[in-house]
Amino acid sequence: MFNQENKRLLLQGNEAIAYGALAAGCRFFAGYPITPATEISEMLATMLPQVGGTFVQMEDEIASMGAIIGASLAGEKTMTATSGPGFSLMQENLGYACIAEVPCVVVNVMRGGPSTGLPTCPSQGDVQMARWGTHGDHPIIVMAVSSVSDSFSITIKAFNLSEQYRVPVVLLSDEVVAHTRECVQLPDQKSIRVVDRIRPSVPPDWYKPYEGDNRGVPHMAAFGDGYRHHVTGLVHDEYGFPTQKPNEVQQFQNRLTKKITRGFSEIMMTKGFMLEDAEIAVIAYGSVARSALKAVEDARKQGVKVGLLQLITLFPFPRSHVSPLLEQCRAVLVPEMNMGQISREVQRVNQNKCVVAKHNRIDGQFITPNEIYAQLIKL
Amino acid sequence: MNALKTITDRYELRFSGSGGQGLITAAVVFSEAVGVYDGKYVCQTQSYGPEARGGKSKAEVVISETPIDYPKSLNLDFLLAMNQAACDAYFYDLNADGLLLVDSTLVEQYPTSRIIGIPFTDIAKNELGKEVVANMVALGAVGRLCQKVNLENLEKALLQRVPKGTEKLNSKALQRGIEEAEKIDVLGLPRSIITDDDEV
Amino acid sequence: MAVTAQKIRHEYLRHNKKFPHVWCPGCGNGIVMAALLRAIYRMEISKDDVVLASGIGCSGRMPTYLDFNTLHTTHGRALTFATGVKLAKPDLNVVAIMGDGDATAIGGNHFIHAARRNLNLTAIIINNSIYGMTGGQYSPTTPFGSTSTTSVYGHIEHDFSIAELAVTAGASFVARATVYHGELMDRLIEQAMRKRGFAVVEVISNCHVQYGRRNKLGGAVDMLTSFKENSITVSKAEKLSPEELEGKTTIGVLTDREMPISTEEYKKVRERASKTKGKI
Fold it and tell me: Is B8 a residue whose pLDDT tops 70?
């Protein structure tokens, strides 16, 4: 594929995302330069043409998002990458990808905000925005990476889910993961599970472009493949044409939501560390999960029964993984580089089962293990 | 639900100086040697942002036999300071028994007696004829002194990274650093605590 | 002619789908749609190989009615989606249909960069000097001094020329027609679609409902008549002074030039890149 299979490479998180995208079959990338995500564009500008793919630098992030949707409709697996300010601009067309069910992956390497904020500092301030940034109720999948090897493998997972459910997937990285170099053993391409959208098998005359299959996911024809159809950002019927009939609108909205809820068990991914006998749990994601793991290990050495639940999928919120933990533990701590964007989700699931403590930092500094440890032993 | 093994060992280095001295490159080469060729776990981070171009610059490397959780330094085992400002700013991040290596061409005030001074810039400029390879002289010395990297692999990693046509110069710079470091008696350096055993 | 028109209607309209259309009686959009279909019919392009992208507004609804691969995008963004489609499948004939507010206000940046990028795309911009669908607010092409629902005391900003903007931004082919000049329009659209490079056709159209009525320009027929009277061909216009051209609309081909096309250039990029394989 790209000559690096089975090689052990020292890569930055951003570079690993680019490799992951190629391994997942991404052949189209449109983007706009922004700190701290630019390396993803640079890598793909180099690598995509080597494998017959296409890179284009657009005039802004609105256009980047539009271009990846267009290319996805033409049959390619597509991605863009940005950071906070650019992610704000992408929200408009991200909503289009949701309603028109266009698979694509949007990487947001989070930096301090709001606005121009702290361009070179880490943050996790865009978590709720990733879920609710575009207007209207909509299905979306949000995932977070915490290491360089995650950046490779979760990127592949993001593409697979996007293709499988015809939904945009937002992949959240942060400045720490983006610029940390670690070794990754890139696997043989043949060993990577890659999922592709299902294309219609019926004759073109029978094709209903927005009729869900048994999973609620419509089969997707590419432009130019003989299945002429209409794609719109308006609410549409099974044929893709605009409708305002309440029964058709309701049916459509239900399907959009249900195609994701049906897939919950597959979409929701977490990793547990030392949770079996834990009385206290840390719930963390992204780079902070690494500080949390160190803090948990240090506390274990002191005899504190503590474990870590690392969230990989942030939305749909992995309620079924978090809820048992809230039953099991007397307290959970949610450290985040924001003012509590996931802790509010934990509290929503909690319903007074246990104490939910927060540790928040928005000064542009990475949360250290010591800070988490200090909070832990107070619980 | 798989759990990582508890960290048993962790060795932390910081390469510091001013932007443009090539410290990030040195750290990347070092990490490549340790991670790709020696096959250990390695995590390399750096100062990012305007200060990386001029002003203070730092690059860190964490080495371990097991997966690394926290990617940045917590308690430095090795500090390379290529100028006075970096030496002053980062000395107290070094653990008491850690090694402080400075470029004695540019660092005049020593914050401690437990210090190794090698004139990297002087060697690069006057012996090798190119000041820009001071970082590679320092890299050789770091490699030799920390004893955490196979020196042949360090050279291999170096030759992979440097621009075509500069291999000889860089390789020579690395060797000069190693030679200089070999002259240093690390065990003879002052220590933070003298135990009874040591006094005998 | 009549037989051909019926054939075209039957061939290209999604007559069993979402008709009647949303356009007001007398709207120029239908004339543009017919001209586009005549051009495609003459070019004998397979319907499967045509992608028609649009933005938001009255013009944005056009793809809904046509039996191609149709893409109704967000406001102003038709060219960004079209860029993605074209880069992914360069053999498709991609046409973006936009309005004046759509292409040059909210989508103005995409428009000039699409012209600069020079993909092999066709952009048809229906310029009716107003935001029609939202109820008659002023657009970038609403003339100074005219009245709209957001310039009730007279418009104090200046309009710009879409076609001239496209020329300056680097489009390979730029032409202008009015909805009165239907035959000219379909020839220009055909020329634009055959052109290798970014090709723009600006069509001056009437919104007698939202613009004409408020500015006492009469109904559809009155407005079309004035297009006829105020238009002048490029060749005739060349002989007139700027003063004589005041208030006139120049129609015909404004620019036709050969420039490298980025889809073709990208093939060369791939060749150059494939030679560096493994050096990443």
Answer: no
